[in-house]
Specification:
Helix content of chain C: over 70%
CATH topology of chain C: Four Helix Bundle (Hemerythrin (Met), subunit A)
Largest interface: A-B, 135 and 126 residues
Helix content of chain A: 55-70%
Radius of gyration of chain C: 19 Å
Number of domains of chain C: 1
Structural class of chain C: mainly alpha
Chains: A mainly alpha (about 625), B alpha+beta (about 475), C mainly alpha (about 190)
CATH topology of chain A: Cytochrome C Oxidase, Chain A
Order of helices and strands of chain C: EHHHHH
CATH superfamily of chain C: Cytochrome c oxidase, subunit III, four-helix bundle
CATH superfamily of chain A: Cytochrome c oxidase-like, subunit I domain
Oligomer: heterotrimer
Order of helices and strands of chain A: EHHHEEHHHHEEHHHHHHEHHEEE
CATH class of chain C: Mainly Alpha
Number of strands of chain C: 1
Strand order of the largest sheet of chain A: 2-3
Largest sheet of chain C: none
Distance between the termini of chain A: 38 Å
Number of domains of chain A: 1
């Protein structure tokens, strides 16, 4: 079909003049004069949607973290009386009639662990991280009025909301929420007889995540289309800030991998409801042989799951990496070191992320020969990751570093990524994985890279772009306190877990008392729990700071408070729909002209090149 | 109550911090004053260096402190033949990653300090260096290659299954315990079918398969040191995982898809206890029984390492590694309780009818199955041996040195026959052993022996399982 | 306000293609799983119902008719446009009905979704495909409403784009069916 010639003004998506009545947003720069519902709830403005993702993500982060505190109480203080939690947790606390002591029910322990993982991985680190910053920054940093389809963007948020609502409701089911681990391996997740959490809870869990996949895909389609189609004049691909590269590639990864997750989940639902046996074979449970449920393979599920599951962790870390690159450069007053290498390493990581998934499956009994391939590619993926770490360190070298909260969290990110990334090298080697699989060594690894590093990237982004979102600054004292408390706290929580793993202690254990081999670590578990509680407290400081600053934070008085070079700082402080009053700026140079000249500490991308001046980065 | 107070304290602390935060914000001068910024930079960057030092020191100190617990180091060296391969790979990786860890953490925090924003200091516009990129791309790649090659060598060696194992046992995981099945004399596991599970036939063993006759679902787990053991791993209901921490053994148990792990234990339970006794951590009193030391009650444990439901953390079995002789002695005792014998063969007709149990070999008279004959022969040889042992006691009491020597020699010879009788699956071999045993006994016990009916050696019966399995 | 011309694909069309990629991955997952499972053996063969052949013809026909309707709309031949649009829609509905009939035919020979691995995959994959077709049906209904309302009788670039997007989606589910159908046939 013929391509249509597009005028720039028609690239506004919903801004095009047309027959759509109530959502005619032809107010380039005007304040939007509409009802609360249109303005805030069902807003189609990317900046508002970003805030919706952020705040919803924060809500879920608090819940997910609180869940981890509860199950850490069980692990750190197994005998302690938990009856005080009964008002909150009701029947999930078993009260011993004789002594009145309350213990956490095993079933609910596993439900908490499952929900914690699901909530943090999907709702917080995928929606809350990508959703927030892709939405906030893509149009602003590439020079577009809004996303390609603001309607789809709004839908993306509301599908996320709906997904969260379903998940939230599942917490109150009589038989309890799903408890089979965020990985939901069948047969456990498919057989109601195997676990209470595999009754209604599992169905709602899957429903919630299918809705979530829709949200991610809607968002991703938008991000990709907008970045590739709606850049302002002069914004070539190699003039994009690394944030945009990261968000673009993340969206592509998500587009290709989340549908596979959905397919796996649908197959689980068919097994659960229509009697198929995609993942079941020769089951004897609850005194019954399931003679009709044969021919399937539990391993097949794992392939489908991890085909998303592995790219998912890069979906989580890449945006954080992009944010950190940007924040480090801006506050070190230097270009990000090796911009092109950083771009290529993002691409390499993205490509490789699709061919390493079975390193989560070394011990599943799959043909050992296959594992060879996955070991090779897994250890290869360490290379572009290493390149990024070295480039970040080289960015700091020779800089004039400004130590604000955003910068601190970016530096902390690099430290955490080094620590967590290095332990991945152990696990990627199948022979080592024989011993370390499903132990606390794995728990330490993924928490440090995802639960800490990715969060640090998110925090850096929030502190750095808070003025862009709210026209105010977050409080620096609280921010620095938040940083140091979390930095120290996180290492205290997850550092010791390496030793637990090296001592062979398995993960997903309600208690270690049964085994002599694993019951020597009471003091360490107590320490971890206490450290977790204290670290959680520091996150509350952040939440308080965040909401307080929205209303009472120091006001932003200049458009470009960080003296950055990128486009988002050229839009007015409380930018309305369409971001720029008047024309969208054009771009003439790459985003890292910081400290290039003696007399100019930074040159915005919008400034034309001088006679004979070369564009940086080549 | 404490919780409430703690919560209240947290709230008050938060309020306090917020107030401090507000005050400090008001006190901050206008942004144009860089001096204050430089002070902040110095403080934060300095804290960064302090943190880095404390952090790295803590890493080293904790490492030293927890080394005694790490499997693979000190007294915890692996108890299997392949274990050291896994451990050395871990150690190599640890060495390499530690170097990178210390170097990069140091560089990060040190550069942040060195290049903090301060008066008169400008950033250097250094945007890229292709040679440097090459270097720090190629060096990690080379290191990774090295780790990959070593790793895959280890992996492929450990996972290879050439069928040359000495013993194959079967582990079946279910919610929430393990069933361990021994193959019996024929050293072959009988077939099972999940549809046949029911009543006391917890594995669904197919009794029409003669290989099942001698299989034993054991309540203890004994394995001989130095022998190559193939564990056939299955599950009944959901995924489980067969995990022996001290042996570096781990493999998922999947319903409907048997998996395996092959390993050779190298350290008996007793040896391990002796080894652990040298460590101060193990010399403390045992937590459950303070009359014993911790090393005295040490046992190898089997755990589940794949989430399988609410009892996942409680699927414990003890594994005892013993000498070959002890193993055979233990097997001897288990034999009578072969699952087939106890839940099928030895039931009365009434019990069979009640439990709807059918014996496919019912047409063979009791005692006429090959297995039954072999067990009977073994029992008789055992009896012979016991008599000799009794005679030895008598002779010792009587201080009859010559007699003692003669009997002791006979015992040694008899034990050899006992061994054959215990492990052979070949009727002729067993008969020969019994004849020999009788001969030895009769030589010694002329006066003491009551006339035994020489067991009718039935050479006309057709062995049910004609593949004779010799123990190497 | 600057008005520079940029000659490239309309973002909404581009967005559709990106979205179609995700649907491709969804069905790629199913067909990969099919291949993996089939290669493990223990695979019961059975013939695809005749209805699937007829439905293939129906959906192919509907695509052709809808393409003709697009051309008619572009040349402002509105009557022709509506005729082709409606007939394309009808054939699209026929596809859905025939698929359903195909399932019923299989049921008649005791092949249900839960009968064996092969049947599970066939029912599942064709089921999800029909679900996506129903999405296309909904979009076509949408197009028909616009086609027949008196307000919207002129050909504008905006309406042309909308039609293009709807029809592209429809052609996609058509091609997807062809791929799936051939895949099933080849695997027999």
């Amino acid at each position: 079909m013929a391509d249509t010639t597009i005028l720039e003004k028609d690239l506004h998506g919903a801004h095009a003049h047309g027959e759509h009545g109530h959502d005619d947003h032809d107010h380039h720069g005007d304040r939007y004069q509409s009802a609360f519902i249109d303005n805030y709830m069902f807003s189609m403005d990317h900046k508002t949607i970003a805030k919706q993702f952020l705040i919803t993500g924060m809500f879920w982060a608090i819940i997910g973290a609180a869940m981890s505190i509860i199950f850490r109480l069980q692990l750190g203080f197994p005998g302690a009386d938990m009856s005080w939690l009964q008002p909150l947790l009701g029947g999930w606390i078993n009260i011993d009639p004789a002594t009145g002591t309350g213990t956490l029910s095993q079933e609910f322990y596993y439900a908490l662990v499952t929900m914690h993982g699901t909530i943090i991985v999907f709702f917080v680190l995928t929606a809350g991280l990508s959703g927030t910053f892709s939405n906030l920054l893509i149009p602003l940093q590439i020079g577009a009025r809004d996303m390609a389809s603001p309607l789809m963007n709004m839908l993306s948020y509301w599908f996320f909301f709906l997904s969260g609502l379903v998940m939230f409701i599942s917490l109150f089911l009589n038989t309890g929420p799903f408890s089979g681990g965020w990985t939901a391996y069948p047969p456990l997740s498919e057989l109601p007889q195997a676990s209470d959490g595999s009754k209604a809870g599992a169905t709602m869990w899957i429903m919630s995540l299918v809705l979530f996949v829709v949200s991610v895909l809607l968002g991703g389609i938008n991000y990709i289309t907008t970045v590739l189609n709606m850049r302002t004049k002069g914004m070539s691909m190699f003039r994009l800030p690394l944030t945009i590269w990261a968000f673009l590639v993340t969206a592509i990864i998500g587009l290709l991998s989340f549908p596979v997750l959905a397919s796996g989940f649908f197959m689980v639902m068919l097994d659960r409801t229509l009697g198929t046996s995609f993942f079941l074979n020769e089951i004897y449970i609850a005194d019954t042989a399931l003679t009709e449920r044969v021919g399937g393979s539990a391993i097949l599920y794992q392939h489908l799951f991890w085909f998303l599951g592995h790219p998912e962790v890069y979906i989580i870390i890449l945006p954080a990496m992009g944010i950190v690159s940007e924040v480090l450069a801006t506050h070190a007053r230097k270009p990000i070191f090796g911009y092109k290498a950083m771009v290529f390493s993002i691409l390499a990581i993205a490509f490789l992320s699709f061919i390493v998934w079975a390193h989560h499956m070394f011990m599943t009994g799959m043909n050992p020969f296959i594992s060879n391939i996955f070991v090779i590619f897994t250890l290869i993926i360490a290379v572009p990751s290493a390149v990024k770490v070295f480039n970040w360190i080289a960015t700091v070298w020779g800089g004039a570093v400004r130590f604000n909260s955003a910068m601190l969290f970016s530096l902390g990110f690099v430290s955490m990524f080094i620590s967590g990334g290095l332990t991945g090298i152990f696990l990627g080697n199948a022979a080592i994985d024989i011993q370390q699989h499903d132990t606390y060594f794995v728990v330490a690894h993924f928490h440090i890279v995802m639960g800490v590093a990715a969060f640090f990237g998110m925090y850096a982004g929030v502190y750095h772009w808070f003025p862009r979102m709210y026209g105010r600054f977050m409080n620096e004292f609280l921010g620095k306190l938040h940083f140091w408390g979390t930095m120290i706290g996180a290492y205290c929580v997850f550092g010791p877990m390496h030793y637990l793993g090296m001592a062979g202690v398995p993960r997903r254990y309600y208690s270690f008392e049964t085994f002599n081999a694993f019951s020597e670590f009471d003091a360490m578990n107590q320490f971890i729990t206490i450290a977790a509680i204290i670290t959680f407290f520091f996150q509350i400081l952040f939440v308080v700071n965040f909401f307080y600053s929205i209303y009472k934070g120091k006001k932003q008085t200049e458009m470009n408070p960080w003296e950055a070079t990128t486009l988002e700082w050229t839009a007015p402080i409380h930018a309305g729909h369409g971001n720029w009053e008047g024309a969208i700026p054009h771009v003439h140079r790459w985003p890292y002209d910081l400290s290039r000249y003696e007399d100019r500490e930074f040159i915005p991308q919008t400034e034309p090149l001088k006679e004979g001046e070369k564009d940086g980065g080549h | 109550m404490e919780i409430f107070i703690g919560f209240l304290c947290a709230v008050l602390l938060t309020v306090l911090l917020v107030q401090i935060a507000k005050a400090r914000e008001l006190a901050t001068a206008v942004r144009a004053d860089h001096n204050e910024e430089y002070e902040v930079n110095k403080l934060q960057a300095g804290m960064g260096v302090v943190f880095m030092v404390l952090f790295l020191v803590a890493c080293v100190v904790s490492f030293i402190y927890y080394a005694p617990y790490v499997l693979g180091w000190g007294v915890n060296t692996a108890a299997s033949e392949h274990g050291p391969m896994v451990d050395s790979l871990f150690n190599t990786t640890l060495l390499v990653t530690s170097i990178v860890f210390f170097a990069t953490q140091f560089a990060l925090f040190w550069f942040a300090w060195q290049y903090r924003g301060r008066k008169g200091h400008k950033a250097i516009y250094w945007s890229h260096n292709d040679q440097l990129e090459m270097v720090w791309m190629i060096v990690p790649a080379v290191v990774m290659t090295f780790l990959v090659v070593q790793g895959l060598q280890a992996w492929n060696t450990i996972m290879v299954d050439e069928g040359d194992h000495d013993i194959e046992i079967e582990a079946t995981g279910y919610q929430f315990a393990w069933e361990i099945r021994y193959p019996g004399r024929d050293n072959m596991l009988g077939t099972k079918d999940f549809r046949k599970i029911g009543g006391k036939n917890t594995l669904g063993q197919d009794w029409t398969d003669a290989k099942n006759i001698d299989d034993v679902v054991a309540s203890d787990i004994y394995l001989p040191v130095g022998k190559k053991i193939r564990v056939r791993i299955t599950a009944k209901d959901v995924l489980h995982n067969f995990y022996l921490p001290q042996f570096r053994v781990k493999m998922d148990a999947v319903p409907g898809m048997p998996t395996y792990f092959i390993f050779t234990p190298t350290v008996t339970t007793d040896s391990m206890r002796r080894r652990l006794s040298a460590s101060p951590d193990w010399q403390v009193a045992d937590k459950q029984d303070d009359t014993k030391k911790r090393y005295e009650t040490f046992d190898y444990e089997l755990a589940c390492a794949e989430l399988c439901g609410k009892g996942h953390y409680s699927m414990r079995r003890v594994i005892k590694i013993v000498s070959q002789e002890e193993y055979e002695a233990w097997l001897d005792k288990q034999e009578a309780n072969s699952t087939y014998m106890s839940i099928v063969r030895n039931l009365t007709d009434e019990e069979k009818a009640k439990g709807k149990v059918e014996d496919p070999f019912a047409s063979t008279t009791k005692g006429e199955l090959l297995f039954e004959k072999l067990v009977a022969i073994k029992d008789r040889v055992n009896t012979q041996l016991k008599s000799l042992n009794d005679a030895l006691i008598v002779a010792k009491k009587a201080k009859n040195a010559a007699e003692v020597t003669k009997i002791e020699a006979a015992i040694v010879a008899m034990q050899a026959q006992q061994r054959i009788a215990r492990i052979t699956n070949n009727l002729e071999e067993a008969n020969t052993a019994e004849r020999e045993a009788n001969r030895i006994a009769s030589q010694v016990m002329q006066a003491n022996l009551t006339t035994t009916d020489n067991a009718v050696i039935d050479s006309t019966a057709v062995p049910l399982d004609s593949t004779a399995n010799k123990i190497q | 306000m600057a008005t520079s011309t940029v000659k490239k694909i309309h973002p909404k069309k581009f967005a559709l293609w990106i979205g179609l990629t995700s649907i491709v991955m969804f069905f790629a997952a199913f067909t990969s799983a099919y291949i993996v499972r089939k290669s493990q053996g223990d695979w019961a063969d059975f013939a695809l119902p005749a209805e699937f052949f007829y439905s293939t013809a129906a959906i192919l026909g509907s695509s052709i008719l809808l393409h003709a309707s697009y051309k008619a709309f572009a040349s402002e031949k509105l009557a022709l446009f509506k005729t082709f649009l409606v007939s394309g829609f009808v054939l699209g509905l026929a596809f859905v009905v025939l698929q359903y009939q195909g399932w019923l035919s299989l049921n008649e020979v005791e092949i249900f979704i839960h009968t064996n691995q092969h049947s599970s995959f066939i029912f599942m994959i064709t089921g999800f495909h029909v679900a996506h077709v129903l999405g296309g049906i909904a979009a076509l209904l949408f197009a028909m409403v616009y086609a027949f309302l008196p307000r919207y009788q002129a050909t504008t670039p905006r309406r042309l784009l909308r039609l293009e997007i709807i029809f592209t989606y429809w052609h996609f589910v058509d091609v997807l069916w062809i791929y799936l159908f051939i895949f099933f046939m080849v695997q027999q």
